[in-house]
Write a structure and sequence with these properties.
heterodimer; A: mainly beta; 22-stranded antiparallel β-barrel; five-stranded mixed sheet; 10 helices; 54% strand; globular; B: mainly beta; five-stranded antiparallel sheet; four-stranded antiparallel sheet; 13 strands; 11% helix
Chain lengths: 689, 207
């Protein structure tokens, strides 16, 4: 069916590329990669990775390929301080600096992905095919990017040919074991004179998997998806260049009783006008749409979100000062089941940033952004970052910035009625629109504040010897005005709802903090071996919960039916899904003579809670049941054959760590979230020219 | 030496006087008891929307410390719902018993031992039309509902129900389990709870 539609164009592309082979030198040395390490996400200007005053992680295409990664989550989970967690919708989202997925902004070539249906952007939506690199900036970045950039920004950079080139590739990956998967790619990058093209398609399918076969539902249902990217670059003159990028994604996932369809597309048009060597302008127009449809025998629910964002940026240099200013607007619409009507958000924003190098050793960046919004209170987000190179082996960097997250459409417009289960949830606007005449409703605010944070990062870069680099970063994020649901306690008869129905709405209440330390080491042992290791210590706690515990309001049971006892602050664990310790260690081997590479990657996370299991009002303490700490060991070997072919074989979760001991805990009975996917094997054939 | 003897004499006379004061008011000691597996069944018809729940409430009297079938009940249990024999019918419930008494209850926070005296009158509530004295629903009353896949009902730690009975006596109770023999894998709707009942009318002391 839909795979057929894909295979034919793949075949066509294959035949066309087969005839247009051209010798392109492939250089595989580490040194060469080093020179190329520039990033754009931290400052929205091209900067050398090593000079950026914020904590940054760069994932190269080479690393993605060597790790056998297929979807974005595969590679992110192997990075220091990053893990993933599922939301209510089962979508896998990223956790960074101890913050949930909704507080990390995900961009593709600088423009945001939309589609947080129940909190998370689904990381499995994004194929790593056609990616040049992934740039991760940790800490608040709302001063440049606006909403959602509290924990940081993940920017997926796709390839943009700069010089005349014709290259392409075909790739086929098949996986078996605990889960099966098929992933196919075809890519073409072309540039000649004024015209450049980057095209890619990817299909990914799996029959899904079931971690607890004794339950009637599968952990993950089977799926088929298709991603298409097409980018055209055209240089009108040396000074006026344009890039038009489009992306399309469609996925069908389901079983016999439930079918889910997701579709998203986007188009981004950029005109870059170089007025002089020191002044250039970017005009961008971005439009995207994300749609889902879930069908069961009894109901169909839909979700449709559209975002249109024009933006103008200007960048200029005056002496030691590099400045960027931007102005833009967002027009956003969401139409979904459980809303009264189609809802609209309009916002306008302006931002500016000064990047100043008073001496060759000191760099200071000051930036700020103002977001004005039609449906919630406005946000002002300043940030200051600085880096000082003490000497040639030590640099210190520090940054402090504001971050914010706009209330989402649900929190404002939900009209969700589950009277059969005895509850309804109203967005704050819907509550006032429907029942604003009730005095009990009038006591609630008609507006929500954006959730907002202050984040601090203090880091050191050390290069004690030429082949060893160490990065240390200490962070703290204080987030306020977190939006929670709460029981209004209003008599349901006032809403014409059945007796006993509970009416929920949203409020700004919680205050949380996350803090920790992150260590990264990169050691080039010799020409063949390279060792990378990372560690994060994390504390993520709720200040309201701490206050409740300190005022002796929280009680626990040591066993499910033992009498209540007071919880002391020493036994408070913090937020769910957070591991205190996370670590990774990766060994890469490269053999130039026989042209093969091999690697072994270990990822560890210490115990974490899923939820409160001993009825202490949702608070997680040391007496709760935890998902035990675990190690995932992955390995891959890749061999280059002839000049065009690469063959890879890999094993993920080599130790077959499934977390089965967790399933024996009463609280986690039949809960797939406490289990891990077992061992899988994959083989990949890559044909590059 | 004389001083010490004098002090001892004063102290002992104080003790004796206070003892004799106690002897004048006859108070009965509080009763501590554990109730195991109080069965509170219900039936639910899922063929209609919203599903209709029915069944006789299981009525409990603190005075007798047992299940009763007449009007002498203080609390009535069915599924996770707990009614108090005071106020008026909540309404919308099938088989809801009429309120014959003037009992009320307060949901207090603390350990069972810490709640040593009944709270002020303002904390006590009765059932009213549309709303329970003991709030129903996960997290707002005495229990939480874990949802899929365990669907477990667990009593919230530190929630103590203080009851002013139909006779004006005070009792405090802590629900420990909603499952038969306190085994979460066993049948539900079996209450196990500890209670302390003060047999002296109007006496708020639980010690």
């Amino acid at each position: 069916m839909f795979l057929n539609r894909i295979i034919i164009p793949v075949a066509l592309l294959f035949t066309s590329v087969a005839f247009s082979q051209e010798e392109v030198q492939q250089i595989d040395s580490i040194k060469n990669n080093k020179l190329d390490e520039v990033i754009v996400t931290a400052t929205r200007t091209v900067r050398q990775l090593s000079s950026v005053p914020m904590p940054v992680t760069l994932i190269s295409k080479k690393q993605i390929q060597q790790s056998g990664s297929v979807r974005l989550s595969d590679i992110l989970i192997e990075q220091t301080g990053i893990t993933t967690a599922s939301d209510f919708g089962g979508f896998n989202g990223v956790q960074m600096q101890g913050l949930d997925a909704e507080y990390t902004l995900i961009l593709i070539d600088g423009v945001p992905l939309v589609g947080k249906r129940s909190g998370n952007i689904d990381l499995d939506r994004i194929s790593v095919n056609n990616i040049k690199q992934i740039e991760i900036v940790k800490g608040p970045s709302s001063s440049l990017y606006g909403s959602d950039a509290i924990g940081g920004v993940i920017n997926i950079i796709t390839e943009k040919p700069k010089h005349d080139v014709l290259k392409g590739g075909l790739q086929f990956l098949a996986r078996g074991g605990a889960k099966n998967e098929l992933d196919m790619n075809a890519n073409l990058v072309y540039k000649k004179d004024k015209l450049g093209i980057n095209a890619g398609i990817n299909t990914n399918s799996s029959a899904g998997f079931d971690l607890s076969p004794q339950t009637s539902f599968k952990t993950t249902n089977g799926h088929e998806n298709f991603t298409g990217n097409f980018k055209v670059l055209y240089d009108f003159t040396d000074k006026l260049k344009t890039t038009v990028s489009t992306r399309f994604f469609e996925e069908n996932q389901g079983n016999l009783t439930e079918q889910n369809n997701q579709k998203d597309w986007s188009v981004n048009v950029d005109f870059n006008h170089k007025i002089s060597d020191k002044w250039n302008l970017d005009y961008t127009f971005y439009a995207t749409d994300f749609k889902t449809k879930s069908e069961t025998d009894v109901e169909v629910s839909t979700f449709n979100q559209t975002l249109i964002r024009p933006e103008i940026r200007s960048q200029f240099a005056i002496g030691k000062l590099n400045a960027i200013v931007g102005v833009g607007a967002s027009f956003e619409e969401v139409d979904r089941s459980d809303f009264l009507k189609k809802e609209k958000f309009d916002s306008q924003y302006v931002f500016g940033q000064l990047d100043y190098n008073p001496t060759s050793k000191l760099n200071v960046i000051i930036g700020a952004r103002f977001d004005n919004h039609s449906q919630y209170k406005s946000a002002f987000s300043p940030k200051i970052s600085t880096r000082y190179a003490v000497n040639n082996w030590l640099a210190a960097k520090a940054s402090v910035g504001y971050g914010f997250k706009a209330p989402d459409f649900r929190q404002l417009y939900f009209n969700f009625r589950n009277t059969a289960s005895g509850y309804v949830v109203f967005g704050i606007k819907t509550l006032h629109e429907l029942y604003g005449n009730l005095p009990e409703v009038q006591q609630f605010d008609t507006d929500l504040n954006p959730e907002n944070s202050i984040g601090f990062n203090l880091g050191f870069e050390l290069k004690p010897i030429s082949n060893l680099a160490i990065n240390i970063n200490v962070f703290r994020n204080d987030i306020e005005d977190l939006i929670n649901t709460f029981d209004t306690q209003i008599n349901p008869l006032n809403f014409n709802l059945p007796a006993g129905t509970r009416v929920f709405t949203y409020e700004n209440r919680d205050r949380v903090y996350t803090q920790g330390i992150e260590l990264d080491a990169n050691y080039i042992i010799d020409d063949n071996f390279r060792f990378i290791a990372g560690y994060q210590f994390l504390e993520a706690k709720d200040k309201e919960e701490e206050a409740l515990i300190n005022s002796n309001q929280i009680f626990i049971r040591r066993t499910p039916t033992s009498p209540s006892e007071k919880l002391t602050i020493d036994n408070y664990f913090g937020l769910p899904n957070r591991s205190k310790h996370m670590a990774n260690a990766k060994l890469y081997y490269q053999n130039f003579e026989h042209r093969f590479t091999a690697n072994l990657r270990a990822i560890y996370r210490s115990k974490y809670a899923l939820y409160d299991t001993n009825n202490s009002q949702g608070i997680i303490d040391e007496y709760d049941d935890f998902v035990s700490g675990n190690i995932t060991l992955n390995t891959a070997i890749e061999k280059k054959l002839f000049s065009l072919l690469k063959v890879q074989f890999g094993v993920d979760n080599l130790l077959d760590e499934k977390g089965e001991s967790n399933a024996t805990k009463q609280a986690f009975l039949n809960n797939d979230a406490a289990l891990q996917l077992g061992r899988t094997y994959y083989g990949r054939i890559q044909f590059n020219f | 030496m004389k001083k010490i003897i004098l002090t001892l004499a004063v102290v002992s006379s104080m003790i004796f006087t206070s003892c004799s004061e106690d002897d004048t008011t006859v108070t009965e000691a509080v009763v501590f008891k554990e109730v195991k597996n109080l069965h509170a069944p219900q039936t639910t018809d899922y063929t209609v929307n919203p599903p209709a729940t029915a069944g006789e409430f299981t009525k409990f009297s603190f005075k007798t410390g047992a299940v009763v079938t007449d009007d002498s009940w203080d609390l009535a249990f069915r599924g996770t719902t707990i009614l108090v024999n005071g106020g008026v019918e909540v309404g919308g419930l099938v088989d809801e018993p009429t309120r014959s008494g003037d009992a009320s209850l307060a949901l207090e926070t603390g350990t069972f031992a810490d709640i040593s005296i009944a709270p002020v009158a303002a904390n006590f509530k009765q059932d009213v039309a549309g709303s329970y004295a003991l709030a129903s629903g996960s997290g707002s009353g005495w229990y939480t509902y874990a949802g899929a896949p365990t669907h477990a009902i667990n009593p919230i730690a530190g929630k103590i129900i203080v009851v002013k009975t139909i006779d004006g006596n005070y009792a405090k109770m802590e629900i420990l389990s909603y499952y038969k023999d306190q085994d979460a894998t066993s049948d539900s709707r079996y209450y196990t709870f500890n209670y302390v009942y003060n047999p002296n009318v109007g006496d708020k002391d639980f010690q």
